[in-house]
Amino acid sequence: MRRSYRRVPAVLLLLLLAGCSGGSQSTLHASGFGAQRTEGLWWLFFWISVAVFAEVMALLGWAVWRRRRPNARIRGGDSLGMVTVLGVAIPFVILVVVYGFGLQDLNALASPPKKADVTVDVVGHRWWWEVHYADQPGAVTANEIHIPVGESVRIRLRTADVQHSFWVPNLMPKTDLIAGKLNSTWLYTDKAGTYRGQCAEYCGQQHAFMAFRVVAEPPTVFHSWVTALATPPARTLTTAQQHGLQVFEQSSCASCHTIRGTTAAGTIGPDLSSIGSRWSIGAGAAPNDAGHLGGWIANSQTIKPGNAMPPQPVAAQDLPDLVAYLQSLK
Ligand code: CUA
After folding, report:
1. 144 pairs with which residues across the strands?
2. pLDDT tens across 26-55, in order?
3. How many C-beta neighbours within 10 Å does residue 74 have?
């Protein structure tokens, strides 16, 4: 029994170290102007808490020491002044200062550092993110937002069902998606890279698998990516991929999903026009490879129970071709 208690500090230390690993999804690795403001506020709170904790511990030590002195006499008169200063005046000053900094940050976060050139409409679904580029009709994707480095991007947020919250910890604090309301936020970063985002409002069974990625890339790369997304290039399909396309168009897949340039125009599930290049399937539920994609099509309920896609009765001999076709959509 005693031995297991001894392991507790080691486990805590490991958890702490895990929290320090670089490049993680964390507000304390700010890479954008918005998250830098929150990170600054976090450190201000942290150091104030450290100072208050140290002060309380010092006073406690001092009281114990005084009590233990031989001939210690407890006088009643000097405690009221101390309580007034340490218990009322100092906390009041701390709260006012912190409130002031908080208001300043709220004001700074209200609008992006530059005028937004790109607008992205994001719709929250249980449990995935629909992404539309407002200036490029047809540029639709899911669970992935590309943004140009050094430019402000306006993000307009709506929900198709319950309340969700849009959060990219390294770039920007949370903004809620509220039924019947259009909310907005923005993203801005000077650092190219990939940043993980996460729904931050409990929205049901698969809330944890409502993740997305923000890919910040040089403006030229971004603009060619978004143009290619809006107008998919003509593809030369192999015989297997051609057969996969037929299976897709003739099965129930096409009534829920859109693939631009085909007859599939469903709008219930995510747009699959660029599925082959996405970072994951099921909004972070599984890696995007042939095995998981095949498993997902056959019965996604085993990977992400409760999601809206029912098991698909695709014949076993057709499945590899269907997967090969979807993987070619880059
Ligand atoms: Cu959407 Cu939690």
Report:
1. 213
2. 888 999 889 999 999 999 999 999 999 999
3. 9
Q: How far is the CA of 25 from the centre of ligand 1 (A)?
A: 17
CA dist 212 and 316 (Å) reads 31
The answer, yes or no, to whether any atom of ligand 1 lies below 6 A from the CB of 125, is: no
The overall longest dimension of the chain from CA atoms, in Å, is 98
Residue 199 Cβ inside 6 Å of ligand 1? The answer reads: yes
Indicate if ligand 1 lies below 6 Å from the C-beta of 207.
yes
CA–CA distance, 216 with 293 (Å, rounded to integer): 26
Helix, strand or coil, per DSSP, at residue 124: strand
* Residue 324: Cβ within 10 Å count: 20
Closest ligand 1 atom number to CA of residue 203: 2
pLDDT digits (tens, 9 = 90+) for 104-143: 999 999 989 888 989 999 999 999 999 999 999 889 999 9
Q: How far apart are CA 109 and CA 113, in angstroms?
A: 9
The encoded tokens of residue 320 equal: 């590899």
